[in-house]
């Protein structure tokens, strides 16, 4: 049998030989073009180097502006060549052959702008190719400014992605070119106007291969995501190039390319309006695993540094959370009810003694040679008045200080002593000076109105009795207990492991507390201050109020565009956190309600609406599943029907002919998982993901030791957005039972594989004789 195969592989038929000949010729043609591109780039570098050299030799020849321009040219050319040589394996990846355009107008990239062909471009099924464009990751112009390569994001490249046989526009043939370094390795063609196959210009237009998409989808997966720049599909391209105004919302099932599209959109926006977006695009991702998986995509598109990809647990500076609360706790922490609790906590924290001390209930000072005292009630009243403002608690401290001085001044009878306003102001200034330089007063203030950090307040919430005062009428006693217990991980200063949901609470507290004031720089007393009584409200460091506002805004980071991936998973509190980072931003929000692990979609929807504000929204839907073969998608659809009855699943674009495997775990679950993972490692070339219930995540880490780094184990919530050549989904019923959104989490787990899926049933799955779990039977 093997010998027979070898023979048939060696002897090619005549048509095969002819096809090989055409393929070689076409590869040769593309190689020729690529060589030309490289020659041109080298030329540009030499040109730029020469200019620089020349400029240096001639000293100050030319204006400084011209010299800077030359340097910039050298710099740009250098970057081009560097990228070409090192980063971009397939720098030049596409070509379109186009009919004559309707109006004959050309755009800035030298290509015809019209999408539609001229009326007489096709006559009696004959036509001429009027234009051939090569598409690449960056644009290159020839010496005569004709386009050698068009940037994939340029308008002229759009037909490469948008043309379909139903609406081909001017495109006759679309070609994907595969290359490595400077060598063209292959070409794959789609003929979009099959009627012109043999009649173009009187000659055949050769068509090679089955199209690039299938080739891309069949490739083995690694631990990092690839860009899809050479095979973006029309419905995806519409999203990528949607105008940036307002909010772009994208929904689509698993594997429809939402993440890929969102990242390509970031690159597109930067290309479109670099000035506006440079340094200001934030991509919010649900997990650090997904950040690690996707962060290589933008550099591969030539965009590095301008886009911040952050996991929800790392959005707040200094916090790096990747632990998960148990579902019941996560539900409390994520709910918008927490806002009320945190508001009370931020203010109530002032009343909690710090560092083993007490909150003082009286203030005694000596001023003008007399003792003046404020008692508990007076202090309480002052606190309430100060807290009457809506400003953040730390920023109300100067107001409280001022109110105390006022009260002391009144008590000391200061106001009565002077009738002349000028004298009164002077005396008051001296009084304030006396009081505020007393150590006792400073110690009192530090204890009575301490500057609070978000972490400290969070830690204070770990005391159940105290927390109960802040959760009254908002959380029930059981919820209060769960919340307090989960925060017990933190020490008195709030140090300790944070959960992903804690981070949104920290961010909310930061807003409620305000940044603690910086150490004051002693400054000359301004007589006007005394008169207006405003000095305490003036900011530190000699900043104006406006400067301070700007500094605070900058510290918070306001982005120009915010992309939210897996948006269905954001809790209301997380929406508030993300919303604060995009108050003036345009947005791209991608997600799939069917994959939501949040239990109350309506509550999250309201928070999302609030974060996005009243900006107009443009909605898109992606309908094709590029990840899962039909056999896997079909199985997952059974869970979808249970999780979200009536929700349509996306149609899978390919099929492998291999149905999912069902196995039943033996008494030693670890051994069963290992055996299944091993099987799959033999079956596929790339990665294997083992998805376990969250509760088994810790124990499962040891199960696969020694199997190599192609296989990874992850908790069901961590599987979000990731994909593997093959997956083992362990004990589906346990995953489904783990939280109110468990069925949707299971749907996510079942849709991670690009080739093979094994379902390993446990006892709770009630497998039938074929090992099929109850949940997955028809
Ligand atoms: N046009 C395309 N060409 C080639 N591959 C594609 C294309 N669109 C999507 N893919 C591939 O399909 C897979 C799924 O894409 P992606 O992860 O972006 O989907 P998703 O909608 O975010 O999925 P999920 O909702 O499950 O997280 C990826 O491997 C991606 O590279």
From TrEMBL:
Residues 231-629 form the UvrD-like helicase ATP-binding domain. ATP binds at residues 252-259. GO terms for molecular function: 3'-5' DNA helicase activity; ATP binding; DNA binding; hydrolase activity. SUPFAM superfamilies: P-loop containing nucleoside triphosphate hydrolases. Residues 1-22, 516-546 are annotated as: Disordered. InterPro entries: DNA_helicase_UvrD/REP, P-loop_NTPase, UvrD-like_ATP-bd, UvrD-like_helicase_C. Pfam families: UvrD-helicase, UvrD_C_2. The lineage of its organism: Bacteria, Bacillati, Actinomycetota, Actinomycetes, Kitasatosporales. The keyword Transmembrane helix does not apply. GO terms for biological process: recombinational repair. Keywords: ATP-binding, Helicase, Hydrolase, Nucleotide-binding. Residues 1-11 have a biased composition (Polar residues). GO terms for cellular component: cytosol. It comes from Streptomyces caatingaensis. This is Helicase.
